[in-house]
Amino acid sequence: MSLTRRTFLAGSAAVGAAVVFPAPAVAARPDTGVAAFAFPLSAVRLLTSPFTANAGRTQSYLQFLDVDRMLHTFRLNVGLGSTATACGGWESPTTELRGHSTGHLLTALAQAYASTGDTAYQTKGNQIVTVLAQCQARASAAGFNTGYLSAFPESFIDRVEQRQSVWAPYYTLHKIMAGLLDMHLLAGSAQALTVLVGMAAWVKFRNDRLTLTQRQNMLDTEFGGMNEVLTNLYQVTGDATHLAAAQQFDHAEVFDPLASNQDALNNYHANTQIPKVLGAIREFHATGTTRYRDIAVNFWDIVTRHHTYAIGGNSNGEYFKAADRIASELSDTTAECCNSYNMLKLTRQLFLTDPSRIEYMDFYERALYNHILASQDPSSAHGFQCYYVPLRAGGIKTYSNDYNSFVCCHGTGMESNTKYGESIYFHDGASTLYVNLFIPSVLTWSARSVTIRQDTSFPEAGSTRLTVTGAGAFSLRIRIPAWAAGTQIRVNGAVFSSPAAGAYATVSRTWVSGDVVDVTLPMALTREATNDNASVQAVKVGPIVLGGLFGTSNLTALPVLDPASLAPTATPLQYTAGGVVLAPFYKVHGQRYSVYWSIGGSTLVAHYPFDGSVADASGNGRTATLVGGAAYVSGRSGQALDLNGSTAYASMPGGLLAGATNFSVALWARIDTVTTWSRLFDLGTGTGAYLFLTPRSSAGTARFAITTAGSGGEQRIDAPAALPAGVWTHVAVTRSGGLGVLYVNGAEVARNAALTATPASTTQNWLGRSQYADPYLDGALDNVRLYHRALSAAEVAGLYTSGT
Ligand SMILES: [Zn+2]
Predict the structure, then answer these.
(1) CA dihedral of 561, 565, 567, 573, whole degrees rounded to 10
(2) Number of Cβ within a 10 Å radius of residue 491
(3) Which of 349, 375, 418, 585 could form a disulfide with 111 if both were Cys (CB 3.0 to 4.6 A apart)?
(4) Among candidates 189, 190, 277, which has minimal Cα distance to 226?
(5) Torsion angle, CA of 77/80/81/87, rounded to 10 degrees?
(6) What is the C-alpha to C-alpha distance for residues 676 and 43, in angstroms, rounded to an integer?
(7) How far is the CA of 427 from the centre of ligand 1 (A)?
(8) C-alpha–C-alpha distance, residues 354 and 367, integer Å
(9) Per residue in 404-439, pLDDT tens?
(10) Cα(220) to centroid of ligand 1, in Å?
(11) CA neighbours within 13 Å on the CB side: how many for 556?
(12) CA 515 – CA 517 distance, rounded (Å)
């Protein structure tokens, strides 16, 4: 949740025969450009699974929440009395986002009612709607324009329009509007629709007063899915002013590059953008304008392929980073949960648009199990929720609480955990049923007078069983995930097919009551490498990401994993490796963990590609710092660190190579002016203990030196020549015990087999600067790598040949 985009704050689901109720509100306008259709949430009943456990805790929370506390600031905003205790956190009476959670609550109550049939949720939702209607009716008495409804004054809208500082007023109004629409569509509230239509008219009134430029400037402030909810409303009412209001929130700065399939997402607040694109696909469904569809499809492809962690989440510190930066962006603030909530909503709409493209539901499954399911605290009776899911090694999940958090992800968490039945089954409007997810459930397909019961312990077992009750001719289209090689389908015990992975398998038949379809879904143990570092990998079983359990042990670097040591335990989906237990990440709570591992014996300590960033691509999080005017310049590959020869250098974190008797440093250098005693690198504690490499010593040649006793104690490797000026040159020094070897352009140029010195600590670890008052480096450095082992001659030659 962006704070004005300048900064950010650092089961008891009913089981049994499903009853479809109430008659869902009928959309005035059918969606165009769709080839699959959702069932009403009320047509699907969940059977016992991890999802019902999560849903049950959230349901308890929905029952627990005090309506008057959730309406306190709404009442005060229009001069109605309230004696309720004020909420805390992001719902405190002074927080500019106040009111957003009440919108989430409306959606959650509507969904819980539709999912379970328990009218207590409907009643509670109706109570809130009634008070919101009272507050809206007092708008003019409170000095607001007609239709305005919020827990904060309308002056917040003046501020966002006038580009004055304010958090995200339309973001909050979107949550309330979406909640009202859900109360109408899922819980049959006519009053909710009336209030929403009044809000929509107010939105149009506000925006009609602005110029296009003023509106577009305003859209730089996070506004949630205003275009989505207004388009959804248009589909219900058929009122063209609702579509026009939606389109006033089309943000050209974000849509234009996406329409031409450009990835311009770097440094954009992630969860500000996803709802805009969700609005775009709904605008396609409402208008048929293919540009909206292209924006959504391109965005989905870009985000899922180039900005997504193994668990299906995205963003570091809430922001998109440069494409393919994954291992170099592991922190305690990765993978904001709202982002996956919104990505799943987008994915679902794209599935409806192109249901033959199996990547959509493969991704849905990945993010659903590994991010959404994984982000609720199972030890909390009320389903407390993660904000971020840390993906740095040694991270730990932290959670919201009853009344003093109300962060954005707490709100979307209420929603995610009350709609697990929504994407398991779809139909094609005729005689085909999609089976997309392997979640125990019962579908009532009223149009064909059949029920489909799905029994499975997936993902703990790689199989599922579908039982048909009722009769008739129809087809099942079963998702065979890309991970499920070797699938077999049996019908009533007889082998029917062995379908390929990564496609839908069709079973067409005239069904009779009691027919049974068994699907085996072999779940292999695999690893997924990060886009930016092949040796940084996550371990998966089928689609399920495993987390290594580290108890109270914080980690300062990626744990090393020998894949050959992975051994299954008696517990499903649980493995051990090197004394560490790996368990499904969705079950990892209350202790430190690592999702990513250093694989293949790699002992990379840090890797700086300097591609416009000081990020450490090793996955170890050792971000460097630019000092004294250091910048970026075109590099040997991508960009490089640019140093001016007078003030500029880069500082790496302390501790690098401290105490190491086996290590390597490899880098590319393009030296503009070769100055005696300048440094490519110099790691140490000062002039007493260090290890450095200079392009030219006073002896006239390149030199590596290491000492724990000042310059008089230096042990050296002298090259036969100085490093050249003006050309990219690969330089590496390796040390294995007493043997040090210096390489230039992939070939050994000198060695010293009598090294004994090893600095015990390193606190000043610099690129381009000496521990002494020597000249600063004038030139550029690229792909600086440090290892805790000696690279072989072949490995050094490989780095040189690769150009990276
Ligand atoms: Zn959030």
Answers:
(1) 20
(2) 17
(3) 418
(4) 277
(5) -30
(6) 78
(7) 31
(8) 19
(9) 999 999 999 999 999 999 999 999 999 999 999 999
(10) 18
(11) 6
(12) 7
What is the reported pLDDT for 642? 97
| Each residue's pLDDT tens digit, 675-722 | 999 999 999 999 999 999 999 999 999 999 999 999 999 999 999 999
CA separation for the pair 244, 88 (Å, rounded): 37
Per-residue confidence (pLDDT) for residue 761, from 0 to 100: 84
Distance 592 CA to ligand 1 centre (A): 22
Q: How do residues 335-390 score in pLDDT, each as one tens digit? A: 999 999 999 999 999 999 999 999 999 999 999 999 999 999 999 999 999 999 99
pLDDT at 589 exceeding the cut of 90: yes
Name the β-bridge partners of 671.
Answer: 725, 779
Among residues 125, 63, 104, 52, the alpha carbon closest in space to that of 417 is found at: 52
Contact present, 320 and 273 (Cβ < 8 Å): yes
pTM for the whole structure: 0.84
pLDDT at position 620 over 90:
no
Residue 601 confidence (pLDDT):
59
What residues does 787 pair with on adjacent strands?
A: 604, 664
Q: How far is the CA of 386 from the centre of ligand 1 (A)?
A: 9
Expressed in angstroms and rounded, the spacing between residue 217 Cα and the centre of ligand 1 is 24
Interstrand relation of 432-435 and 463-469 (parallel, antiparallel or unpaired)? unpaired
Q: Pick the range with the lowest mean pLDDT from 323-327, 747-751, 760-764.
A: 760-764
What is the 403 CA–ligand 1 centroid distance (Å)? 16
**Averaged pLDDT for residues 622-626:** 93
Strand partners, 625: 651
Mean pLDDT, rounded, of the chain: 94
Q: Is the pLDDT of residue 14 over 90?
A: no
Q: What pLDDT, on the 0 to 100 scale, is given for residue 760?
A: 81
Cα(118) to centroid of ligand 1, in Å? 28
3-class DSSP assignment, residue 140: coil
Give the domains, in start order, of the chain with CATH numbers. 1-16+49-242+405-423 (no CATH), 250-375 (no CATH), 426-456+463-520 (2.60.40), 527-599 (no CATH), 604-802 (2.60.120.200)
Q: How far is the CA of 409 from the centre of ligand 1 (A)?
A: 4
Length of the chain in terms of residues written: 804
| Closest CA relative to residue 750, chosen from 734, 763, 772, 770 | 734
Phi, psi at 250, each rounded to 5°:
-75, 115
Interacting residues of 330 by C-beta distance below 8 A, sequence separation 6+: 316, 391, 392, 393, 596, 619, 621
| Sequence-separated (6 or more) residues with CB below 8 Å from residue 581 | 548, 549, 569, 574, 575
Q: Residue 648 Cα, ligand 1 centroid: separation in angstroms?
A: 38
**401 CA → ligand 1 middle, Å:** 14
Residue 734 alpha carbon to ligand 1 centre in Å: 46
| Residue whose pair of structure tokens reads 């109550």 in the numeric block | 109
Per-residue pLDDT for 321 more than 80? yes
In the prediction, which pLDDT does 27 show? 58
Element (H, E) at 195: helix 190-208
